[in-house]
Every structure is written in structure tokens, then in C-alpha cells.
Amino acid sequence: MAVFEEKVPLPTPARRKRNPRGQGARLRDEIIAGATAVLERTGSEDAVTLRAVAREIGVAAPSIARHFTDLPEIIDAVVAHELGELYQSLVAAGTTTAEPVERLLRISKAYVDYGQARPARYRILVGRRFLDDWEERDLVMAQSAPLMAAGIDMFTAAIQACVDAGRSTTSDASFATAILWFALHGLITVPAAITSLDWPDYGEMLNACVTRAAQLTPATA
User: Fold this and answer.
1) What is the DSSP letter of 168?
2) In sequence order, what are the residues at sequence separation of 6 or more whose Cβ sits closer than 8 angstroms to the Cβ of residue 118?
3) pLDDT tens, residue order, the chain (221 aa)
4) Which end of the chain is more exposed for a tag (fewer CB within 10 A), N or C?
5) Beta bridge mates, 168
6) How many domains does the chain have?
7) Among residues 68, 84, 111, which one ends one of the domains?
């Protein structure tokens, strides 16, 4: 994992009250929240260190070891938490309509809205440099991988529903999902990175991404 070179001023943590007996799970949640806060403030997962997280929530570093074996496990928990938030927003968007094309459009918009509203958190979901370190150590994303799969499955099922309704000509919903995912990721990241260009209307771009990736067809009488 790359070393975080820039010296980021660390906040002086407030003195933390000890959790009552039997509420150790609360500390685990606080550790995840603290790591997320460091990520949000710095915009880099390299800044999420055990020391930084401990200072963020006002505990000694050994206290963290009672809940997480190492930093990658904390990062995995942060990713899982964010994926859970994203997944719930997709579910909420998908339950607002039963019409398959409109449902696909709405969950796609929910995905892009999430990424645009939380750029630092979105980056750690899809642009994690620590993945190289995980592969070298043969670590498993035990907490986040199932949620990632669930999100992909939701899009695949939504595209397949369009096929079943005669509104998509794709012969492979899984492949169409991959294309759509790439397109939505670009819609989130490219305009934010290149602000000097006059990009087309967001709504039109979103509609075009979904329509073309999922090979949607106009409704017939």
C-alpha cells in the first residue's frame, strides 16, 4: 500500500466515554464511522491508518484490535457500509415503479446520484488502490463482496425484466449490465474530473447511457 506523503492535520479528539458493558458493537460502528470520516475529510484511503482512526474517535489503537484484525478489515467494513447505503438507495428507487424500463432508469439515476453526492466515498468503492495489497496477501473482501454482487444482480435482473417485457433486444443481460456500469461510472467521474468542457444535459446523458447499454426499444401499442 502506498504511503500517504502529505501531512494532513489531525483533529484533537474529544475524550471518549467508555461504552457500557455489553455494548462493544457500538465501538465497532464508531471505528467504521471514524474511518469513513477520515476518508471523507482527506479524500484518500491512504490517510486511513489505525492511528488516524483511533485519534478520530478518541480511543487507543489497541482498542481497535479487539474488533478488527488489521487495517484491510476496517477498509472492508467501510466499503461494506457504503455499499449497504448505496444498495438501499437502489432498492428504494426500484420500488417506486413496476414498469421495467422506468425502474431501470430510476435505479441507474440513484446510482449516479450517490456517486455525485459522495465522491470520496464512491472512489473507495470503485477505485481502491489497496486492492493490489489485498491480492498480494490473498485477502478476501468478506464483508463487501456479497453486497457488491447484490447490487450487480439488481441491475442484471432489471435489464432482464426489460427483455422479458419486450423492451430490450439484448441477448445477454449480464453483459449489458457490465456496459451500463461502465457508462454510469463515466457519467459520475468524467464530468467531475474535466470541468472545462461543456457537457450535455445530465438527464439526456443518463437516458442515453441506459438506453444504449441495455439496448432498450420504444414501447409499442
Assistant:
1) B
2) 82
3) 333 333 334 333 334 344 454 455 789 999 999 998 988 888 777 788 888 999 999 998 888 888 888 888 888 888 888 899 999 999 999 999 999 999 999 999 999 999 999 887 888 787 655 555 555 555 667 778 888 899 999 999 999 999 999 999 999 999 999 999 999 999 999 998 899 999 999 999 999 999 999 999 997 64
4) C
5) 216
6) 2
7) 68
